[in-house]
Write a structure and sequence with these properties.
The protein is built from 9 helices and 16 strands. It is α+β, with helices and mostly antiparallel strands and about 290 residues long. β6, α2 and β7 form a beta-alpha-beta unit. It is globular and about 60 Å long.
């Protein structure tokens, strides 16, 4: 079987290299495919997919990144390209539709909320007065980028006037204001790595002393976790609602129970692999092969 790894970078990232190794160890051909080399062409009777000058001949691919697009035109073009791969019979994992939801933090929360999954109170607006009022009401909020990862760009705000200055800056740079109520919790959260219908790895992420962010990229400490049946059910249900094949799910423990903070559709896994000693790339590739065979 021929399997590709699709990413924006010309050279494979660490995560991509681990996945390429897993594909080869399972006895299949592995190809790294920067999406800037891909093309789709509609002919009279066929759809022609290429990478560079070569006809694209793969059975499936792991779509690890849709990249940053500075213009809507470029973003729309990339979406069209990825949809073309799916229309051409190539199984993408995760699908471009599910990745679009996962990349948008508010849209993810909205879909989960509508399905009855517990999520934090959140606000999305370009109305600075509404953001100011909400900050005053909730008292403690986290300002997040709508699209982002690893905790970068997230700011804890405990005063509406401090928030006002931040919100003005967001609007000046043509960014939406996205606020999430800060939930009081132990100095940790939970990362669950789901493949298919099961959790393949789980860990607590502890914040460094005097910090609130638990992300490993922000200095958080990983500790293995054996998930309860309640966590397992919540995680698998979340993945199914978003129509994903695999995902990294961030969950917080608070007074009212578990709440889903974020879902990552192309999660890194080096940190959780180190903490749990689980072979996550193998699990992902094995599941992709199962889906292709179906």
């Amino acid at each position: 079987m021929k399997i590709g790894i699709i990413h924006e970078t010309r050279c494979p990232t660490t995560t991509s290299r681990l996945l390429l190794d897993a594909i080869r160890k399972l006895g299949h051909e592995a190809f790294y495919m920067p999406f800037t080399y891909l093309s789709a062409r509609i002919e009279k009777n066929s759809l022609v997919l290429k990478i560079g000058t070569q006809t694209l001949n793969i059975d499936g691919a792991l779509l690890r990144s849709i990249g940053y697009a500075p213009s809507f035109e470029q973003f729309a073009g990339r979406l069209s390209l990825f949809f073309s791969l799916e229309y051409g019979g190539i199984y993408l994992m995760n699908s471009i539709t599910s990745l679009l939801y996962a990349r948008n933090k508010f849209l993810t929360l909205l879909k989960l909320f509508k399905a009855g999954i517990p999520v934090p109170r959140s606000l999305l607006t370009e109305n600075i007065a509404e953001a100011y009022r909400t900050t005053k009401e909730w008292r403690k909020v986290v300002v997040k980028p709508v699209v982002g990862s690893r905790g970068f760009g997230q700011v804890l705000v405990e005063n509406e006037d401090v928030g006002y200055r931040i919100y003005r800056t967001c609007l000046q740079f043509k960014q939406f204001i996205f606020l999430q109520e800060f939930l009081e919790k132990p100095s940790r959260d939970i990362r669950l790595f789901v493949v298919g219908d099961r959790i393949v790895a789980a860990m607590y992420r502890y914040a460094p002393p005097n910090e609130w962010k638990t992300n490993i990229a922000q200095g958080g400490k990983a500790v293995p976790l054996t998930p309860s049946s309640e966590l397992e059910e919540l995680a698998v249900k979340t993945v199914n609602i978003l129509n994903m094949d695999y995902a990294g799910i961030d969950i917080v423990e608070c007074k009212t129970g578990f709440q889903v903070l974020e879902v990552n559709g192309s999660p890194a896994f080096e940190g959780i692999m180190e903490a749990t000693h689980k072979d996550i790339p193998r699990e992902i590739v094995k599941y992709l092969i199962e889906k292709i065979k179906k």
